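Handoff note, outgoing to incoming analyst
You'll be picking up this chain. Sequence as last confirmed:
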Amino acid sequence: MDTEHTEETEEFLLPRSRRANERLHALIPGGAHTYAKGDDQYPENLAPVISHGRGAHVWDIDGNRYVEYGSGLRSVSLGHAHPRVTEAVRRELDRGSNFVRPSVVEVEAAERFLATVPTAEMVKFAKNGSDATTAAVRLARAATGRPRVALCADHPFFSTDDWFIATTPMSAGIPAPTTDLTVAFPYGDLAATEELLNRYQDEVACLILEPATHTEPPPGYLAGLRDLADRHGCVLIFDEMITGFRWSEAGAQGLYGVVPDLSTFGKALGNGCAVSALAGRRELMELGGLRHSGDRVFLLSTTHGAETHSLAAAMAVQTTYVEEGVTARLHALGERLAAGVRDAAASMGVGDHVVVRGRASNLVFATLDENRQPSQQYRTLFLRRLLAGGVLAPSFVVSSALDDTDIDHTVDVVAQACAVYRKALDAADPTPWLAGRPVKPVFRRLA
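Most recent structure output, in case you need it:
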């Protein structure tokens, strides 16, 4: 970072960002357009407002430079302003971005996507993940004639729409009958899922889950879900918003060899450009089309779903992943980072408290208290020290733009943060190191 700060002082201040955050809250509910980007997710008065980014770095409006992780909530996996993506977008902008009829770019993007994810037979593009997952749920209900949605209780987010938000602490405004139609099953437990399907016999339209998260699926689990869905006549939906491209170019389904009926992609697909995809079996997807004689299904119909520049970005991303071996690079960078952080934490005596988890391409960290329980206070302490050292890391999710120097710098800053962490553990009270309220969970009942 451009400005130097010492461990024991609070010289790291963001006056311009602080004023900008006040302006944001005055005009935008929550001060951000995604709850996970809210300033309540950062230590008090230390939520930087970004000026610009390039590669693996971003600059805030106070002039500080950071090594950034989790870029764009995992969407910018190639790094900011990636030249191949930027050039593809610029080329289409010069040709017009939206027309009254489909552009040839739409069929080219569909062909490219289905060549990259060969387990799917048809695809429809949208702008965000929620539209895609809700379309998958609607399609499953239409195809099966059943009302209930069964989602994985252990996965944090599927959609902004009522069928999912009803299950969170932020369910205000959602009618009880909608809430009652969503049921949940635990990840990795086939017996519990089968019990749920038997309890709601012939009522469950679909099983929707992320195929993998911070832990690998147990042996045979995904294949077992495939079998359960077939035997109970429901649709199997993989939410590949995160696993898509980060697990393999063809997603987790390509890596683990289990083919869902429907799957949804986003995040890394556009390297920050707004594009998502619903893909799946022709028999199901065609119900949302015109080449059948049954009732029409309102699948996806979005004015901006086929913006040419976003589809061009998606094609450039897929080409880059395949030609440059991006997934393998993400794994190599993540493995180097995870090893360094674990060594740094252990060397400072907090190896059981600062814990790195997840697949190497999708790392998160846990901050545990003296009883080894998750702690928002210790997370606040940790984030404060990372920010002061020029590391912006709500997670440790890597982009391929990082290099060894970035990783080494991050590990050095983590070591400094862990030294403070050890002091707080010894005092059995992190409060003196917080300088304000602790960071808050995204999903909570009260503001």
